[in-house]
Design a protein that fits this description.
Residues 99-109 have a biased composition (Polar residues). Residues 21-70 form a coiled coil. The chain has helices spanning 16-49, 51-85, 103-108. The chain is built from three helices and no strands. The model has no long low-confidence stretch (mean pLDDT 73). The chain has two domains: 1-49; 51-86. The protein has 109 residues and is mainly alpha-helical.
Length: 109
């Protein structure tokens, strides 16, 4: 019997069994790829449980907390400064828009 380079008999080239085998090979390759992906995810999850990851996560959270706290203090200083200055009518604001307390007052003006 004649066999080609792929090891297939000449009469099997259109065979349904051969098509099924090829489909199974493709499915197996996809499944193998998914298994590898799941293994990588599992490794990532295991790394998250490690003390090193927990420590890094804790440090990042502390930095975020400090940044938010610092930003809040700076914002409070700006608000306090605006409150201390007050809404005084100036030459730069001849319409008195700076003295208005709400958007409705500005629109009504």
């Amino acid at each position: 019997m004649e066999v080609d380079e792929a090891g297939i008999h000449w009469f099997c080239s259109g065979c349904d069994v051969l098509k099924l085998v090829n489909n199974l090979k493709e499915s197996n390759a996809k499944l193998h790829s998914k298994v590898n992906d799941m293994e990588e995810r599992l490794i990532n999850i295991e790394n998250m449980k490690s003390e090193k990851f927990k420590e890094k996560n804790r440090n990042i959270r502390e930095e975020l907390y400090e940044a938010k706290d610092r930003e809040g203090r700076e914002c409070n200083l700006v608000i306090k400064g605006i409150d201390e200055i007050g809404n005084v009518e100036s030459d730069n604001d001849p319409l008195g828009i700076g003295q208005m307390q709400s958007d409705e007052q500005v629109v009504d003006h």
